Amino acid sequence: MRVTHVITRLVIGGAQENTVASVLGLRRRPDFQVHLITGPTTGPEGSLASLFREEPDLLTLVPTLVRAVHPLYDCATLLRLTRMFRATLPHIVHTHSGKAGILGRLAASRAGVPIIVHTIHGPSFGNFQGPIPNFLFKGAERLAARVTTHFVTVAQAMTRQYLAAGIGRPEQYTRIFSGFALAPFLEAQNDPALRRRFQIEADDIVIGKVSRLFKLKGHDDLLAAAPALLRRCPRLKFLLIGDGAWRERLQLRAESLGLQQHFIFTGLVPPEEMPRYLGIMDILVHLSRREGLPRALPQALAAGRPVIAYDCDGANEVCLPGETGFLVRPGDLDTLAERLVQLARDPALRERLGARGRDFVRQSFSIETMVEELCTLYRQLAATRQK
User: Fold this and answer.
1) What does the pLDDT look like over 253-291, one tens digit per residue?
2) Cβ-contact 303, 277 below 8 angstroms
3) Domain 182-364 has CATH 3.40.50.2000
4) Could you tell me the CA-to-CA distances from 235 to 203, 261, 303, 344 in Å, in that order?
5) Domain 2-179+366-386: homologous superfamily in CATH
6) What residue spans in the chain does CATH classification 3.40.50.2000 cover?
7) Which residues, other chains included, contact 248 with Cβ-Cβ below 8 Å and sequence gap of 6+?
8) How far apart are CA 365 and CA 175, in angstroms?
9) Which end of the chain is least crowded, N or C, by CB within 10 Å?
10) Residue-wise pLDDT tens digits, 74-114
Protein backbone atom coordinates (compact mmCIF):
# COMPACT_ATOMS: atom_id res chain seq x y z
CA MET A 1 0.00 0.00 0.00
CA ARG A 2 1.44 3.37 -1.05
CA VAL A 3 0.92 6.14 1.53
CA THR A 4 2.05 9.75 1.09
CA HIS A 5 2.08 12.08 4.10
CA VAL A 6 2.08 15.85 3.66
CA ILE A 7 2.94 18.44 6.32
CA THR A 8 3.62 22.17 6.04
CA ARG A 9 7.03 22.21 7.75
CA LEU A 10 9.26 20.02 9.90
CA VAL A 11 9.98 22.31 12.84
CA ILE A 12 10.50 20.75 16.26
CA GLY A 13 6.96 20.35 17.54
CA GLY A 14 4.33 17.80 18.48
CA ALA A 15 2.56 17.54 15.11
CA GLN A 16 5.87 17.21 13.29
CA GLU A 17 7.27 14.59 15.68
CA ASN A 18 4.03 12.62 15.34
CA THR A 19 4.25 12.74 11.55
CA VAL A 20 7.92 11.74 11.43
CA ALA A 21 7.34 8.85 13.86
CA SER A 22 4.41 7.67 11.74
CA VAL A 23 6.39 7.78 8.50
CA LEU A 24 9.44 6.04 9.93
CA GLY A 25 7.24 3.45 11.66
CA LEU A 26 5.32 2.68 8.46
CA ARG A 27 8.64 2.42 6.61
CA ARG A 28 9.42 -0.69 8.64
CA ARG A 29 6.18 -2.40 7.59
CA PRO A 30 6.81 -4.60 4.50
CA ASP A 31 3.31 -4.04 3.10
CA PHE A 32 3.61 -0.23 3.09
CA GLN A 33 5.52 2.16 0.85
CA VAL A 34 5.61 5.55 2.53
CA HIS A 35 6.74 9.03 1.53
CA LEU A 36 6.67 12.47 3.17
CA ILE A 37 6.23 15.84 1.45
CA THR A 38 7.01 19.03 3.36
CA GLY A 39 7.66 22.71 2.85
CA PRO A 40 10.81 24.58 3.89
CA THR A 41 11.64 24.72 7.59
CA THR A 42 12.61 28.21 8.72
CA GLY A 43 12.61 30.11 12.00
CA PRO A 44 13.91 29.58 15.52
CA GLU A 45 11.94 26.40 16.25
CA GLY A 46 14.61 24.07 14.81
CA SER A 47 14.16 21.28 12.28
CA LEU A 48 13.49 17.54 12.23
CA ALA A 49 14.62 17.12 8.62
CA SER A 50 17.93 15.67 9.78
CA LEU A 51 16.07 12.53 10.90
CA PHE A 52 15.82 11.62 7.21
CA ARG A 53 19.52 12.05 6.51
CA GLU A 54 20.04 8.28 6.20
CA GLU A 55 16.84 7.78 4.18
CA PRO A 56 16.61 10.87 1.93
CA ASP A 57 14.34 9.03 -0.51
CA LEU A 58 11.55 9.28 2.08
CA LEU A 59 11.41 13.09 1.95
CA THR A 60 10.51 15.60 -0.77
CA LEU A 61 10.73 19.36 -0.25
CA VAL A 62 8.20 21.65 -1.97
CA PRO A 63 9.63 25.20 -1.63
CA THR A 64 6.29 26.94 -2.22
CA LEU A 65 4.54 25.08 0.62
CA VAL A 66 4.77 27.84 3.23
CA ARG A 67 2.80 28.42 6.41
CA ALA A 68 1.57 31.96 5.68
CA VAL A 69 -1.22 32.63 3.19
CA HIS A 70 0.47 33.41 -0.14
CA PRO A 71 -1.91 33.21 -3.14
CA LEU A 72 0.84 32.77 -5.76
CA TYR A 73 2.74 30.12 -3.77
CA ASP A 74 -0.46 28.39 -2.73
CA CYS A 75 -1.64 27.99 -6.33
CA ALA A 76 1.79 26.73 -7.35
CA THR A 77 1.77 24.23 -4.47
CA LEU A 78 -1.69 22.96 -5.35
CA LEU A 79 -0.62 22.36 -8.95
CA ARG A 80 2.67 20.70 -8.00
CA LEU A 81 1.08 18.38 -5.42
CA THR A 82 -1.58 17.40 -7.94
CA ARG A 83 1.13 16.50 -10.48
CA MET A 84 3.10 14.55 -7.87
CA PHE A 85 0.08 12.52 -6.81
CA ARG A 86 -0.83 11.76 -10.43
CA ALA A 87 2.72 10.57 -11.05
CA THR A 88 3.15 8.43 -7.93
CA LEU A 89 -0.45 7.12 -7.63
CA PRO A 90 -0.63 6.77 -3.83
CA HIS A 91 -3.45 4.67 -2.43
CA ILE A 92 -3.68 7.07 0.53
CA VAL A 93 -2.71 10.70 1.02
CA HIS A 94 -2.50 11.58 4.70
CA THR A 95 -2.19 15.30 5.49
CA HIS A 96 -1.16 17.18 8.62
CA SER A 97 -1.31 20.85 9.77
CA GLY A 98 -3.32 23.74 8.39
CA LYS A 99 -1.86 24.75 5.04
CA ALA A 100 -0.73 21.27 3.98
CA GLY A 101 -4.04 19.90 5.22
CA ILE A 102 -6.07 22.12 2.91
CA LEU A 103 -3.84 22.11 -0.18
CA GLY A 104 -2.84 18.47 0.20
CA ARG A 105 -6.40 17.21 0.40
CA LEU A 106 -7.62 19.35 -2.51
CA ALA A 107 -4.67 18.23 -4.64
CA ALA A 108 -5.26 14.57 -3.74
CA SER A 109 -8.90 14.90 -4.77
CA ARG A 110 -7.93 16.56 -8.09
CA ALA A 111 -5.45 13.74 -8.72
CA GLY A 112 -8.04 11.04 -8.05
CA VAL A 113 -6.42 9.60 -4.91
CA PRO A 114 -8.96 7.05 -3.59
CA ILE A 115 -8.44 7.59 0.17
CA ILE A 116 -7.69 10.96 1.77
CA VAL A 117 -6.95 11.14 5.50
CA HIS A 118 -6.29 14.23 7.60
CA THR A 119 -4.90 14.35 11.14
CA ILE A 120 -6.15 17.17 13.36
CA HIS A 121 -3.25 17.89 15.71
CA GLY A 122 -4.80 21.07 17.05
CA PRO A 123 -7.69 23.42 16.29
CA SER A 124 -7.39 25.94 13.45
CA PHE A 125 -10.30 27.93 14.88
CA GLY A 126 -11.57 28.80 18.34
CA ASN A 127 -11.85 31.56 20.93
CA PHE A 128 -8.11 32.23 20.72
CA GLN A 129 -8.69 34.37 17.61
CA GLY A 130 -11.25 36.78 16.18
CA PRO A 131 -14.45 36.13 14.22
CA ILE A 132 -13.01 36.85 10.77
CA PRO A 133 -10.12 34.34 11.02
CA ASN A 134 -12.51 31.79 12.51
CA PHE A 135 -14.96 32.30 9.64
CA LEU A 136 -12.20 31.84 7.06
CA PHE A 137 -10.59 28.82 8.73
CA LYS A 138 -13.92 27.06 9.29
CA GLY A 139 -14.84 27.69 5.67
CA ALA A 140 -11.55 26.23 4.44
CA GLU A 141 -11.90 23.19 6.71
CA ARG A 142 -15.47 22.56 5.54
CA LEU A 143 -14.33 22.78 1.92
CA ALA A 144 -11.52 20.30 2.47
CA ALA A 145 -13.82 18.03 4.50
CA ARG A 146 -15.90 17.41 1.38
CA VAL A 147 -13.04 15.42 -0.13
CA THR A 148 -11.79 13.85 3.12
CA THR A 149 -12.36 10.15 3.58
CA HIS A 150 -11.43 10.06 7.27
CA PHE A 151 -10.10 12.23 10.10
CA VAL A 152 -7.59 11.17 12.72
CA THR A 153 -7.56 13.21 15.93
CA VAL A 154 -4.97 13.16 18.68
CA ALA A 155 -7.70 13.85 21.25
CA GLN A 156 -11.46 13.39 21.48
CA ALA A 157 -11.69 17.13 22.14
CA MET A 158 -10.72 17.76 18.51
CA THR A 159 -13.46 15.43 17.29
CA ARG A 160 -16.07 17.31 19.34
CA GLN A 161 -14.89 20.73 18.20
CA TYR A 162 -14.84 19.86 14.51
CA LEU A 163 -18.21 18.10 14.57
CA ALA A 164 -19.71 21.08 16.39
CA ALA A 165 -18.40 23.28 13.57
CA GLY A 166 -20.19 21.12 11.01
CA ILE A 167 -17.04 19.44 9.70
CA GLY A 168 -17.50 15.79 8.82
CA ARG A 169 -19.66 13.09 10.41
CA PRO A 170 -19.03 11.15 13.65
CA GLU A 171 -18.21 7.92 11.82
CA GLN A 172 -15.41 9.71 9.95
CA TYR A 173 -13.35 10.28 13.10
CA THR A 174 -10.85 8.06 14.90
CA ARG A 175 -8.72 9.08 17.87
CA ILE A 176 -5.15 7.83 17.80
CA PHE A 177 -2.90 9.09 20.58
CA SER A 178 0.34 10.64 19.39
CA GLY A 179 2.97 8.04 20.26
CA PHE A 180 6.63 8.59 21.07
CA ALA A 181 9.65 6.50 22.05
CA LEU A 182 8.76 5.65 25.64
CA ALA A 183 11.92 3.99 26.94
CA PRO A 184 14.12 7.12 27.31
CA PHE A 185 11.35 8.89 29.23
CA LEU A 186 10.54 5.92 31.44
CA GLU A 187 14.23 5.78 32.35
CA ALA A 188 14.63 9.53 32.98
CA GLN A 189 16.65 10.39 36.10
CA ASN A 190 17.47 13.55 38.01
CA ASP A 191 20.85 14.53 36.54
CA PRO A 192 22.93 16.58 39.03
CA ALA A 193 25.37 17.68 36.30
CA LEU A 194 22.56 19.11 34.17
CA ARG A 195 21.11 20.88 37.18
CA ARG A 196 24.51 22.43 37.90
CA ARG A 197 24.77 23.64 34.31
CA PHE A 198 21.70 25.79 34.90
CA GLN A 199 22.71 26.73 38.46
CA ILE A 200 19.88 24.73 39.98
CA GLU A 201 20.65 23.71 43.56
CA ALA A 202 19.89 20.27 44.96
CA ASP A 203 17.02 21.57 47.10
CA ASP A 204 15.44 23.77 44.41
CA ILE A 205 12.01 22.76 43.12
CA VAL A 206 12.00 22.92 39.31
CA ILE A 207 8.80 23.85 37.50
CA GLY A 208 9.29 23.05 33.82
CA LYS A 209 7.48 24.27 30.75
CA VAL A 210 8.01 22.87 27.24
CA SER A 211 6.66 24.92 24.34
CA ARG A 212 7.50 27.49 21.72
CA LEU A 213 8.09 30.97 23.11
CA PHE A 214 5.13 32.51 21.38
CA LYS A 215 1.61 33.77 21.90
CA LEU A 216 -1.11 31.54 23.35
CA LYS A 217 1.48 29.34 25.07
CA GLY A 218 0.91 30.78 28.56
CA HIS A 219 4.37 32.09 29.45
CA ASP A 220 2.91 35.47 30.44
CA ASP A 221 0.58 33.76 32.91
CA LEU A 222 3.48 31.89 34.49
CA LEU A 223 5.46 35.12 34.82
CA ALA A 224 2.45 36.86 36.34
CA ALA A 225 1.98 34.12 38.92
CA ALA A 226 5.68 33.81 39.77
CA PRO A 227 6.15 36.67 42.28
CA ALA A 228 3.42 35.39 44.58
CA LEU A 229 4.68 31.83 44.16
CA LEU A 230 8.20 32.79 45.13
CA ARG A 231 7.02 34.58 48.26
CA ARG A 232 5.51 31.27 49.41
CA CYS A 233 8.20 28.94 47.97
CA PRO A 234 11.49 30.85 47.54
CA ARG A 235 13.37 27.79 46.24
CA LEU A 236 11.42 27.58 42.96
CA LYS A 237 13.16 27.64 39.59
CA PHE A 238 11.28 27.89 36.30
CA LEU A 239 12.85 25.96 33.43
CA LEU A 240 11.51 27.14 30.06
CA ILE A 241 12.42 24.75 27.25
CA GLY A 242 12.02 25.96 23.69
CA ASP A 243 12.62 28.97 21.54
CA GLY A 244 10.59 31.32 19.43
CA ALA A 245 9.83 34.89 18.43
CA TRP A 246 8.86 35.88 21.98
CA ARG A 247 12.11 34.85 23.67
CA GLU A 248 13.61 38.34 24.04
CA ARG A 249 10.28 39.77 25.13
CA LEU A 250 9.85 37.13 27.84
CA GLN A 251 13.43 37.50 29.05
CA LEU A 252 12.97 41.26 29.36
CA ARG A 253 9.76 40.78 31.31
CA ALA A 254 11.46 38.36 33.71
CA GLU A 255 14.21 40.95 34.25
CA SER A 256 11.70 43.75 34.79
CA LEU A 257 10.06 41.67 37.52
CA GLY A 258 13.42 40.91 39.11
CA LEU A 259 12.98 37.20 38.36
CA GLN A 260 15.99 36.56 36.11
CA GLN A 261 17.61 34.35 38.76
CA HIS A 262 14.53 32.14 38.85
CA PHE A 263 13.67 31.87 35.13
CA ILE A 264 15.98 29.73 33.01
CA PHE A 265 15.66 29.90 29.21
CA THR A 266 17.29 26.80 27.74
CA GLY A 267 16.66 27.56 24.08
CA LEU A 268 15.98 24.69 21.72
CA VAL A 269 16.49 21.21 23.08
CA PRO A 270 16.82 18.33 20.57
CA PRO A 271 13.99 15.79 20.95
CA GLU A 272 16.46 13.07 21.95
CA GLU A 273 17.62 15.25 24.89
CA MET A 274 14.13 15.91 26.22
CA PRO A 275 14.05 12.96 28.67
CA ARG A 276 17.19 14.29 30.34
CA TYR A 277 15.62 17.73 30.80
CA LEU A 278 12.34 16.32 32.07
CA GLY A 279 14.38 14.30 34.54
CA ILE A 280 15.57 17.45 36.35
CA MET A 281 12.03 18.80 36.70
CA ASP A 282 9.82 18.23 39.71
CA ILE A 283 6.61 19.45 38.05
CA LEU A 284 5.61 20.20 34.47
CA VAL A 285 3.17 23.04 33.81
CA HIS A 286 1.39 23.48 30.48
CA LEU A 287 -0.60 26.67 29.99
CA SER A 288 -1.29 26.66 26.26
CA ARG A 289 -4.71 27.86 25.11
CA ARG A 290 -4.55 26.17 21.74
CA GLU A 291 -3.27 22.62 21.41
CA GLY A 292 -4.75 19.29 20.40
CA LEU A 293 -3.03 17.14 22.97
CA PRO A 294 0.37 18.54 23.96
CA ARG A 295 3.08 15.87 23.81
CA ALA A 296 4.85 17.51 26.73
CA LEU A 297 2.13 16.18 29.04
CA PRO A 298 2.44 12.42 28.32
CA GLN A 299 6.22 12.77 28.02
CA ALA A 300 6.45 14.34 31.48
CA LEU A 301 4.16 11.65 32.87
CA ALA A 302 6.32 8.94 31.30
CA ALA A 303 9.23 10.50 33.19
CA GLY A 304 7.20 10.20 36.40
CA ARG A 305 6.57 13.96 36.75
CA PRO A 306 3.13 15.27 37.73
CA VAL A 307 1.53 17.86 35.45
CA ILE A 308 -0.59 20.96 35.83
CA ALA A 309 -2.41 22.11 32.69
CA TYR A 310 -4.98 24.57 31.55
CA ASP A 311 -8.21 22.72 30.79
CA CYS A 312 -8.03 23.36 27.03
CA ASP A 313 -8.62 21.00 24.14
CA GLY A 314 -7.28 17.50 24.90
CA ALA A 315 -5.28 18.22 28.06
CA ASN A 316 -7.93 16.57 30.25
CA GLU A 317 -7.46 13.27 28.41
CA VAL A 318 -4.03 12.79 30.01
CA CYS A 319 -3.98 15.28 32.90
CA LEU A 320 -6.41 13.39 35.10
CA PRO A 321 -7.30 15.49 38.18
CA GLY A 322 -5.99 13.91 41.36
CA GLU A 323 -4.53 10.97 39.41
CA THR A 324 -1.78 12.33 37.14
CA GLY A 325 -1.96 16.04 37.98
CA PHE A 326 -4.36 18.98 38.17
CA LEU A 327 -6.40 20.94 35.66
CA VAL A 328 -6.85 24.70 35.96
CA ARG A 329 -9.37 26.95 34.26
CA PRO A 330 -7.49 29.06 31.66
CA GLY A 331 -6.38 32.35 33.17
CA ASP A 332 -7.15 31.34 36.77
CA LEU A 333 -3.80 32.37 38.22
CA ASP A 334 -4.90 31.96 41.84
CA THR A 335 -5.74 28.28 41.37
CA LEU A 336 -2.62 27.81 39.30
CA ALA A 337 -0.53 29.18 42.14
CA GLU A 338 -2.33 27.05 44.74
CA ARG A 339 -1.76 23.84 42.80
CA LEU A 340 1.89 24.64 42.16
CA VAL A 341 2.48 25.39 45.83
CA GLN A 342 0.65 22.21 46.81
CA LEU A 343 2.90 20.08 44.62
CA ALA A 344 6.06 21.99 45.50
CA ARG A 345 5.50 21.33 49.21
CA ASP A 346 4.41 17.69 48.94
CA PRO A 347 7.03 15.32 47.47
CA ALA A 348 4.91 12.27 48.31
CA LEU A 349 2.04 13.67 46.25
CA ARG A 350 4.40 14.36 43.36
CA GLU A 351 5.64 10.79 43.54
CA ARG A 352 2.13 9.31 43.63
CA LEU A 353 0.81 11.34 40.69
CA GLY A 354 3.97 10.72 38.68
CA ALA A 355 3.80 6.96 39.22
CA ARG A 356 0.16 6.83 38.14
CA GLY A 357 1.01 8.95 35.10
CA ARG A 358 3.85 6.65 34.09
CA ASP A 359 1.53 3.61 34.17
CA PHE A 360 -1.13 5.43 32.15
CA VAL A 361 1.27 6.58 29.42
CA ARG A 362 3.02 3.22 29.16
CA GLN A 363 -0.30 1.66 28.13
CA SER A 364 -1.38 4.26 25.57
CA PHE A 365 1.46 6.27 24.01
CA SER A 366 4.02 3.97 22.41
CA ILE A 367 5.00 4.55 18.78
CA GLU A 368 4.26 0.89 18.10
CA THR A 369 0.66 1.31 19.30
CA MET A 370 0.20 4.47 17.20
CA VAL A 371 1.60 2.90 14.03
CA GLU A 372 -0.42 -0.29 14.51
CA GLU A 373 -3.62 1.73 14.91
CA LEU A 374 -2.77 3.73 11.77
CA CYS A 375 -2.16 0.54 9.80
CA THR A 376 -5.44 -0.92 11.01
CA LEU A 377 -7.29 2.25 9.99
CA TYR A 378 -5.66 2.31 6.54
CA ARG A 379 -6.61 -1.33 5.92
CA GLN A 380 -10.19 -0.74 7.06
CA LEU A 381 -10.54 2.27 4.78
CA ALA A 382 -9.06 0.32 1.85
CA ALA A 383 -11.41 -2.62 2.48
CA THR A 384 -14.42 -0.32 2.63
CA ARG A 385 -13.33 1.38 -0.59
CA GLN A 386 -13.21 -1.96 -2.41
CA LYS A 387 -16.77 -2.94 -1.48
Assistant:
1) 999 999 999 999 999 898 899 999 999 999 999 999 877
2) no
3) yes
4) 7, 11, 22, 9
5) Glycogen Phosphorylase B; (3.40.50.2000)
6) 2-179+366-386, 182-364
7) none
8) 12
9) C
10) 999 999 999 999 999 999 999 998 899 999 999 999 999 99
- Amino acid residing at 56: P
CA distance 121 to 23: 16
Based on the number of CB atoms within 10 Å of its own CB, is 258 exposed (0-12), middle (13-18) or buried (19 or more)? exposed
